[in-house]
Amino acid sequence: MEINSKGRLTRREVMRTYDRTWVEIEDMLEDAKARRAQWVQFYEHAKRNRDKDSMKDAARNAKALEGVEKTLRWVLGESGIRDPLN
Predict the structure, then answer these.
(1) What does the pLDDT average to over 1-20?
(2) Contacts of 26 (CB under 8 A, 6+ apart)
(3) H helices within the chain, ranges in order?
(4) CA 12 to chain centre
(5) The whole model's pTM is what?
(6) Residue range 56-77: mean pLDDT, rounded
(7) Residue 16 above 90 pLDDT?
(8) Strand runs labelled E in the chain
(9) What percent of the chain has pLDDT over 70?
(10) pLDDT grade, residue 4 (50/70/90)?
(11) Burial degree of 35 (CB within 10 A; 0-12, 13-18, 19+)
(12) What's the rounded Cα separation, in Å, for the pair 42 and 61?
């Protein structure tokens, strides 16, 4: 969606091709889980050192990867994930 010159919301036409395999998606999910675990570990390290800025960065990145995981689980059709936006 984008806003046109008259300030109205319009749908932009996008040409999409889809050539990902289930294995690629599952691998990406595993990578996202591993990266989130690293950020959680970094958060705990920063917390021990009372580094609030690093804690914020780590928490933000861990939460973002949680969303990535949920979306990939939705793409894979895992049960219990009806809408990745909720």
Answers:
(1) 75
(2) 76
(3) 22-48, 52-75
(4) 23
(5) 0.78
(6) 97
(7) no
(8) 2-3, 9-10
(9) 99
(10) confident
(11) middle
(12) 10
